Amino acid sequence: MPDGNDDGEIGRMDVRKPWIRYLAAIEPHRTALFHHCRYLARNVWDAEDLVQEAMLRGFANIALEDYDVSNWRAYLIRTATNLWIDRTRKARPLPLDGLPEAAAPGTAEMSVELRDGGKTLFSRLAPQERAALVLKEAGGFTLEEIAAMLETTTGAVKSALHRARTKLGEPENETPQNRPTEELIDKFVEAFNAGDFARLAALLLETVTAEVFALGTGRGREELQKPDRWLHACLYGHPGDEMPTRRAEKRIYLDEPIVVVWNEAEDGEKIEEIWRFSETEGAISYVRDYCACPEVIEEVARSMNLPSRVTSYRVHLRPPQD
């Protein structure tokens, strides 16, 4: 697709260039954003979904906001908080499968309620109550800062905090949909480690979607087999790169079979990528690739006592040419 012309056509690179610069600008704040979303969301996967949604919404809003962003951390956290409140108001409260083991670096230590409440802390709080509690106890924001983020008064924040601390309850269980069978994941891992491109492709649904968080989405089995597309890049790397020395392994995390990808380096073999799949009619119908989600890789690997190695967006993005 062309990059645009004088008639007003918008090409892919017209949008991709500012998106890449935006990712580079907010990268120092991504960890703080993830940890905030991790306290709001019920598990690591939902936390990353919220991170990505907040990043996209923040990117779109910059062109519409009538002021310059002076505090990116607060801006992104406010965006994520408002998105979470809107989402939660439309659905019943959902359970929390577990909190991170410790507060995020650079933030206030968790209070006794947060540290000891564990899984039961947020399950029955109203959206604004939960958001206020997380911003105050995990984020370390002042009442005035929280009021500004939630677009309310300090008095309302105090009331929300008081209600939140009196409404702890037991979470409910949720059954995930389209969870892949271990048999399908075993077939994928075996074909990947054998370098069998045709067998890997045969495991994909014809209408499969592969989402590499923040970096791009590909649709269709035929499309994903092209050079520099998901399946081809996973097995052979990107054009111009050295052939990867990786192996895949099935692991069970939160009762779900996932694929962790090991890579050998000078300091030993470590996990560098995590993939999740959805299954439809015995084939892989959706791929979620967390290669550019360092906090997700670190948390999942740590929970399984596995070593990990993470990289920044700059490693995965092809920088635009000015």
For the CA atoms, what is the radius of gyration?
21 Å
Q: Which runs of at least 5 residues are low in confidence (pLDDT < 50)?
A: 92-123, 168-176
> What profile does the largest beta sheet have?
6 strands, mixed
Task: Please estimate the helix content.
Answer: 40-55%
Helical/strand content category: alpha+beta
Query: What is the distance, rounded to the nearest whole angstrom, between the alpha carbons of the first and last residues?
Result: 18 Å
Instruction: Give the helix tally.
Output: 14
Tell me how many strands there are: 6
Strands ordered across the widest β-sheet: 2-1-6-5-4-3
Q: What string gives the helices and strands in order?
A: HHHHHHHHHHEEHHEEEEHH
Average pLDDT for all residues? 78
Describe the structure.
The protein is α+β, with helices and mostly antiparallel strands and 322 residues long. Helices cover 44% and strands 16% of the residues. Strands 2-1-6-5-4-3 form a 6-stranded mixed β-sheet. The longest helix is centred in the first third of the chain and has 19 residues. The chain is globular and about 60 Å long. The relative contact order is 0.11.
Topology:
Elements lengths: L11 H15 L3 H11 L3 H19 L9 H18 L22 H6 L9 H12 L4 H8 L3 H11 L17 H12 L3 H6 L1 E9 L3 E4 L1 H4 L5 H7 L9 E8 L2 E10 L2 E13 L2 E7 L4 H10 L9 H4 L6
Parallel strand pairs: 1-6
Antiparallel strand pairs: 1-2, 3-4, 4-5, 5-6
Helix pairs in contact: 2-3, 2-4, 3-4, 6-8, 7-8
Descriptive key words:
322 residues; 6-stranded mixed beta sheet; alpha+beta
